[in-house]
Amino acid sequence: MEDYAKGASLELYFRRLSPYFYGKTFVEACEFCARRLKIVMLAIQLDPEIYDSRPQIFPNPESIIQPNTAAYFLADHRLDVQRAAVYCKYCHEDIADPAQITQCSCQAGFKSALKNRPGQYWIPSYTAEDSPDENVAILPQPIIHLNGEPVESRIWSYICEHPNTPVNNSREKLNVMQSPENIHLDDVDGDQPKPSVLYDSSGLFYWTPARPLCSVRLTRLQAARKNFANHIVVCVVSQSTSQTIGLASFVMPLRSSAIPSGELSDILILADDKYVEKEWKYLYNLPRLFVVKGSPLNRADLRSVNLNTCKMCVLIGAANPHEKSTDPTLLDKSVILATLNVRAMKFSEDENMKANNHSRRSNLDEQTETIKRCTRRTGFEVPLITDLMRDTNVQFLDDDDEDLPGTEFYLTQPYSGGRAFSASVLDLLMVTSFFNPIIYTVLHSVIFGGASPELEQIMAEGAGLIGPSTISSHERGDQVRVKQFKMSDELFSMHVGSTYGGLFTDALLNKRLLLLGIYRKIGVTSNKRYVITAPSEDFMIYESDRIFALQRTVD
């Protein structure tokens, strides 16, 4: 866990790049920073003083770094990042120890020249005569869509043509269910032809026409007969009076257009029916979403959603305002019981055989993964994430964890391995984002696959995801996503037994992947893992390791 603690101590820093990097591609600069300066470059941003300048997360590898460009780094200390701001080819090229790289006289002269021109800053498409005067304020401009239409016009067109609630009467419902778009997006058996995929107006998310809740609601019997596989189960411990928790914020990244359509997983929400009705108005435009009425505390309900073949199971608690407790430990009582309930389950051979037969209709990769999941015999083998309101309650999730009493939440085995989460983790991010708002944009782009001023304005208007055929984008944007790879795959198997530095360089230069870290087993026989963020270049790689990397969707 020492490697995990070291990776957890890394922070995100923002610095302007020294003139040494001007004219280099992003890949060249990123490789140099990792090899020479021992820091990881994640993103660049053209002159931050420009109003509409935004961070570019792992941009096109051939992107050229221009003057005044700033970058975002993962590093242990601000002095480590300062090396990228002061590096000089003539003064630092022969220095072996990166810690000895400090500002030289060349850098001081360059910065002085910039300070003497406070109103002039470099913009790629401007000439010297076009540069804005220093006394003229740069005012926010209307956000224009790619086709030249202002966003306000698109919002007005949408609210004039579409109701804010899905159709409910039987005839309209039948027409919606039989439309080609809806058949494509809700067909889980894959027996019907699939027309083109629809995206929302920003191109960042998959989109479908709004559907009434009754069109995606499944009974326990219907869910069991669907034979879901490679799906995501979201279990919400809820009641009809429970407060909404914002399920859309969880589902939207799973419907990012950065994910190829062939890799989208069905999402099953197991929760109280009345509770889901309160959340549905934020979910009805997201495709391949199903609702099963039931409770995570009922094993029969859990069994009906095929936990034995799911890709991931998420357990979330929705607080009930009518239930008050003076003991903060009891805040997570229901979600902890649901977690233990899943762990205590056993799966029969009949369940696994039925799922195995269904997998034969999937593509080869999905079929392989499903067959592996069909070997699950107990709930301990189900990948599970539990969301806790109080982080100290992590001690009740698993008796096998070796954490000492009083261990900080971010150092516990459940959190380090992605088996537990708590809202308290977001406190630091909230404070950091308050003092440096651009950090939020970087994290938003990594999680959602991209950031769009248009989408932010539409959400601020309260229109939700808009995207009928006259408005929707038919192309994905230039995005990135975080993807997990196995070291045993042919793509990386040659690096087993070698160092992380060689793996990082090969992935960046030859496979167009920006590595973030390693996902390693706690022990040889254990199925539990933990994350090691940006290990050192001499870190040894094992065959059982997995890696996390940023991958571009458009090159």
How would you explain this protein's 3D organization?
The chain is of the alpha/beta class. The protein has helices spanning 2-8, 26-37, 78-86, 89-92, 105-115, 151-161, 170-178, 180-186, 220-226, 247-251, 273-279, 299-304, 333-343, 349-359, 364-373, 413-416, 426-435, 438-448, 453-461, 500-510, and strands at 11-16, 40-45, 56-57, 70-75, 217-218, 232-237, 267-271, 289-293, 312-317, 384-388, 420-422, 480-486, 513-521, 529-533, 546-552. It has a 7-stranded parallel β-sheet.
Task: Lay out the secondary structure.
Elements: H1 2-8, E1 11-16, H2 26-37, E2 40-45, E3 56-57, E4 70-75, H3 78-86, H4 89-92, H5 105-115, H6 151-161, H7 170-178, H8 180-186, E5 217-218, H9 220-226, E6 232-237, H10 247-251, E7 267-271, H11 273-279, E8 289-293, H12 299-304, E9 312-317, H13 333-343, H14 349-359, H15 364-373, E10 384-388, H16 413-416, E11 420-422, H17 426-435, H18 438-448, H19 453-461, E12 480-486, H20 500-510, E13 513-521, E14 529-533, E15 546-552
Parallel strand pairs: 5-8, 6-7, 6-9, 7-8, 9-10, 10-11
Antiparallel strand pairs: 1-4, 2-3, 2-4, 12-15, 13-14, 13-15
Helix pairs in contact: 2-20, 14-15
Q: State the helicity in percent bands.
A: 25-40%
Class per helix and strand makeup: alpha/beta
Residue runs with pLDDT of under 50 for 5 or more positions:
112-147, 169-195
Q: Give the strand tally.
A: 15
User: Could you describe the largest sheet, including whether it forms a barrel?
Assistant: 7 strands, parallel
Shape: globular
What's the pLDDT, averaged over the residues?
A: 78
Number of helices: 20
Fraction of residues in β-strands: 5-15%
* Rg over C-alpha atoms, rounded to the nearest angstrom: 25 Å
Strands of the largest sheet, in order across it?
5-8-7-6-9-10-11
Through-space gap between termini = 37 Å
